Amino acid sequence: MKIAKKLMALSLAAVMAGSCLTACGDSSKADGKGGDEKTLVIGGSGPLTGGAAQYGTAVKNAAQLAVDEINEAGGVDGVKFKLVFEDDEADKGDKAVNAYNALKDKGMQVMLGTVTTGSCLAVIDKTKQDNVFQLTPSASAQDVIKNDNAFQVCFTDPNQGKASADYIAQNNIAKKIAVIYDNSDAYSSGIYNTFKSEASEKGLDIVAEQSFTSDSKTDFSAQITAAKNANAELLFLPIYYQEASLILAQAKSAGYSPKFFGCDGLDGLLDVENFDKSLAEGVMLLTPFAADAADDATQKFVKAYKEKYNNETPNQFAADAYDGVKVIAKLVEKEKIKGNMSTSEICDKLKNAITDGFSYDGLTGQGMTWGKDGAVSKDPKAVVIKDGAYSALDK
Fold first, then answer.
1. Phi then psi for 345, rounded to 5 degrees?
2. pLDDT tens digits, one per residue of 313-326
3. Can you give the residue range of the structural domain that contains 352?
4. Distance between CA atoms of 38 and 33, rounded to whole angstroms?
């Protein structure tokens, strides 16, 4: 009996030891020690469910497309990429943090994300504390790059505001402008504040400044009436496409038909469920990407994306994410990164490399460069919605 008990104890100890080895086998990357030399894990998070799911799905799809292309070509000096992605629901708090922690558990070594500004603000201090290299494709607030490990592929909000005012003035689109913006949202407020300042410099007259909050974003009748009564020729909408779709419908009901101009948050407008696309005809927006651009790189990307994802046309969030993965690949090549390096060592190498004379020609910009402030330098493109599709204004 004693012998049997002893054998059972030894067997149990062996099983527990084996379980520990199995359970701990994938934890090396999560605790920053590095893993398989030939595999680098890129983590991303974004909304895959909820009202902003178009953004997160586009980023995830395009990132996977880029990873697949890199791996099919043999990787980067033999190092293959693995993409892990979590749904953060565009949350500004716990859900974003939980998604980040889940990515760490899955061995994330470099972060492509997050997709939205609010979620990014929720995790930036986490990535700084963990010293993870973070390249967000589309979170555009200035504060998301306040730490030296964080960089953007998209424009910062102030840059979008300035570029919008400049484009409107330079192309003589309108002189009298009304604005509807979300003063509870960092993205919207950031764009508007810079737009207002630049508009004044360019001689544009803001005749109505109207705001709303996340708690009151369905009825815009008061804001539209104010813009109409001020005889605004153009309504500037530095907001997301969900609210923009409501404003377009309610403006028509109010008999108000100004020109409409927005930024990258309006990308997705044509895919709003049950939205009358004719309402968006003539809407202009600044974006880094136009799917109908004639250059070979854009057409190759659009073709590959459509073939992989049920003939869907990629938006600028997809293009930014695709560029983001390719930028990471170039930096990995430049610094000879291997998968068994620690997360912190990888971060230090990449953040120094991206600010040290690095330049990248991508879908969303030629000769893109990054400063130590984390912001990208590139030129925006103007797009107009024509015949139910996005079309480049400056072909």
1. -65, -40
2. 999 999 999 999 99
3. 31-155+296-379
4. 15
